[in-house]
Design brief:
By secondary structure, the chain is an alpha+beta fold. A hairpin with a 2-residue loop joins β8 and β9. α3 runs parallel beside α6. The termini are far apart.
Length: 260
Amino acid sequence: MTIATSASASATSVVQRASGSRTKINLTAFQYPSGYRGINYGAQLDRLRRDLGITLTGDTARGPARGMGLPQHAEHFFAIPDWGMIASNQNEALKIVLAALARKLGTNFAMMGISIDDQHMREHDATTMALLTHHARQPRNKVRMLPAQFGARYKGGQRLRDVRSTCLGSVNGEFGLNAYTVAVMLLTHPERLLTKKPTFCIRCPGTEYSIAGDGDFASCPIFGVVNGQIRFTAVKDVLGGNKAVFGAATGFVLPELIAS
């Protein structure tokens, strides 16, 4: 995986190259790639088995029941393994998922000047609390079904605090997704960013990032794309007019208890 020396420079490059402009942006040009669509739950589990080498059983990886509806604004049910199945903590699990993405995509994936450790990266409190409730509603599952959207709902110039505030005020348990969850979603759905046409980057509002590692967690990890290559980096909350090419990924707490 390619490592850049400057996170801020890398992020600016991702955004400028993705937008094709430093100033005026035609937001309507930035859509989901035509090749992206949510794949069925069983196929997601197969990809997780293959790419992460984890063992899954029907009792611990149950998907949505027939006729189970999605919460408003959710696009699809995504299969998300508990990070404890993969590593001793969430940051280590994120590294493993990113390494799996690198193996899967080869030169089509790169990490750009981002540090994955407790000094630089932490989960937002609201996301932690939402996940506790979400997990409690499917107590036997080790791979949790997650209703989520991949960024289109917040495509545009909203600040992270505004996205998080909207989530907190929602009636359907919406919360910002952390970088680990978004990485897993890309592992099962790489088509979301594998394109050379304009598409919007994915912010991970459930993870806070400190670029300098100095306790100022004012930034956010993103998955961007340049010339068909997916790049994982971090950006400050606002990058001038270029912020319009971002979309924030969010999930939704399951609306009902899945019987144990």
